[in-house]
Amino acid sequence: MQDTQIADLIAAEEKRQREGLELIPSENYVSKDVLTALGSVFTNKYSEGYPGRRYYGGQENTDPLEQLAIDRAKQLFKADHANVQPHSGAPANEAVYSAWLEPGDTVLAMELSHGGHLTHGAPVTRSAQLYNFIRYGMKNIETGEIDYDHLRELALKHKPKIILAGFSAYPRELDYEKFAAIGKEVGALLMADMAHIAGLIVGGVAKNPFDYGFHVITTTTHKTLRGPRGGLILSKGIVGNPLKKPEKTLENIPTLIDRSIFPGMQGGPHMHVIAAKAVAFREALQPEFKGYAAQIVKNAAVLAEELKKHGFNLVTGGTSNHLILADVYKSFGIDGGVAETALDAIGLTLNKNAVADDTLPPFRPSGIRLGTPAITTRGFKEEHMSQLADWMKQAVDKRDDERALQEIRKQVVEFVKSFPLPL
Questions:
Q1: What residues contact residue 232 under an 8 Å CB cut-off, 6+ apart?
Q2: Domain coordinates of the chain in residue numbers?
């Protein structure tokens, strides 16, 4: 590369990833094949529209490419339709809102501080300015149990057009059957944001909302799905012509979503990213992916127990998925930003995160969020979790001792040599 400044930064980032461990639950390492597709000549091609219905010529390779991605995504999630064009998870959610709602309509979604996502109605977002978001949360923070009785009361009172099940920092599994019963009772579209656990669903270690009558699933394609950074919308219903505006019915959801993505929100799809998505979907269809997904959950469960032994107070008492949320303010009297900085110093990357009903400000929240998708990709097993938990406790205890942190960092660098990146 002639641009030496960028080349140096790429090399530095690869070194950071190689010599440290990614514990952020929304991050993962892609395969060499995914990375190759992402850097392919498909980045040069404009392909506005959909397969067989493009606005530009020269689509003899992009059409079968996108159709492969669609077919593989449908197979993975048992969907009637897949839109593989969303650039990210946030616009995927926005597209579903736009497809089904009118300004002022109501959405029932999880409270941000109880584990929900910004795009589930946080006041600072664009969608919150357009739609009326009503929030549900946990009944018992110690166990993570959702207050489904209150959720039903809210649904009966506010008559939401969408009931949204999904999360960004919730370590347990949702009861989709209860969501579906409430949605049916009030006539709402059932939408699941599965960005965090998509890979667990296709790996068979998390429930598929489609099995319980949900109409739409949105997800990112990175995280546990281990693909490139991008979005995906899956739906049940009749697939029609996206160039013709259909009646707004549940059966027409696939076509309504297609029209919402293009021409509603996005122009030309990023075909190099769609190529990489297609590769990742094929990888997720292989038998070994089920073993990978199962190992993520096993690792997380053991890591949670090891952290508790070291005095970490865990929100909901543990985890049922890939994600752990620890209240370090309650545990050690420090905020999540302090813990994040100390762990960064030893090469363990995670993120500060609010906990339920947090009394600290957003940039100094009480918690940290971590998970096991990326370290599982590198080959970590249950027996390695005690070492991780021990390093985390050491980093917290010695957070003001720069020399001690450097010594721990050397231990981490040496240890991870046995777990190479998948490049």
A1: 73, 82, 83, 84, 86, 92, 198, 218, 219, 220, 221, 277
A2: 32-284, 288-416
- Cβ atoms of 346 and 18 within 8 Å: the answer is no
**Helix, strand or coil, per DSSP, at residue 319:** coil
How far is it, in rounded angstroms, from Cα 306 to Cα 406? 23
Give the 3-state secondary structure of residue 379. coil
Beta bridge partners of 323: 371
- List the one residue out of 313, 349, 308, 343 whose CA is nearest residue 329: 313
Third-level CATH fold of 32-284: Aspartate Aminotransferase; domain 2 (3.40.640)
Cα torsion at 17, 296, 84, 51 (round to 10°)? 100
Residue 239 is encoded by which pair of tokens? 């697939």
Element (H, E) at 343: helix 336-345
Residue 379 pLDDT greater than 80, yes or no: yes
Nearest to 363 by CA among 339, 337, 392, 383: 337
CB 98 within 8 A of CB 264: yes
288-416 has CATH 3.90.1150.10 classification: yes
Q: Is residue 42 a contact partner of residue 275, using CB atoms and an 8 Å limit? A: yes
Residue numbers annotated as active site: 46, 48, 193, 220, 223, 229
**Tokens read off for 395:** 């980093």
224 close to 201: Cβ distance less than 8 angstroms = no
pLDDT tens, 263-296? Answer: 999 999 999 999 999 999 999 999 999 999 999 9
Phi-psi region of 202 (alpha: psi -120 to 50; beta: other; left: phi over 0): alpha
Widest CA span in the chain: 66
Which CA distances in Å does 44 have to 235, 265, 334?
Answer: 29, 21, 48
DSSP string, 122-146: -TTSHHHHHSEEEEE-EEETTTTEE
What predicted TM-score, i.e. pTM, was given to this entire model? 0.96
Residue type, 184: K
Q: Which of 25, 137, 78 is nearest to 375 (CA)?
A: 25
DSSP 371: E
φ, ψ dihedrals at 49, nearest 5°: 110, -155
pLDDT confidence band for 115 (50 / 70 / 90): confident
Q: Residue 390: phi, psi to the nearest 5? A: -65, -45
Classify residue 48 as exposed, middle or buried by CB count within 10 Å of its CB (0-12, 13-18, 19+).
Answer: middle
Q: Is 187 left (phi over 0), alpha (psi -120 to 50) or beta?
A: left
